[in-house]
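Table S2 (text version). Query chain:
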Amino acid sequence: MNISELEDIQLMGRIASGDREAFAVLFERHAPLMLGVLTRMLRRRDEAEEVLQEAFLQAWDRADTYSPQRATPRGWLLLISRSRAIDRIRSRQSRSRREDAVLKEDAWKSEVEPIGTESLEESERAASLHGALTVLPVDQRRCIELAFFEGLSHSQIADTLDQPLGTVKSRILLGMRKLRDQLAPAF
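Corresponding structure-token output:
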């Protein structure tokens, strides 16, 4: 053990007794080294300074637990600093994961339509279709209603209306073209 380590051990004893001057001396001796280590670990000077303060505050609060048999005062301070830096890095990573999760959740929410719009859009389409159907001639409208709303085949429609099959097909085709022209801007 060298002389400065012995002096540091004496300072730790005085700090454990509440000696602020001894604490200031210990800080002056070791803060520059610890700040350098913390800055390399955290890659941000402002965070390194905060962690340095936290580490020295912990050293002040726990000076009575220091044991010279386990570490030198410098080693003990570096261990405290390293632990605080690792806590800070973990906290930063955890916050980053939470923020990423929130961003992903917000992105997902922005892709989903608001609740209730589907039924509203469906009723708007139905109203548009009903309006377009009323413009069709009665014979075309009736053939389309039987085919698409009642599910009858072309042959069944011909039988129901007592019309030739070709006439039913023509009326459906002409009616569908008119509906497409009327509804194209709406859909």
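Notes on Table S2: The helical segments are 3-16, 20-42, 45-61, 73-111, 117-135, 138-149, 154-161, 165-183. The two ends are 86 Å apart (CA to CA).
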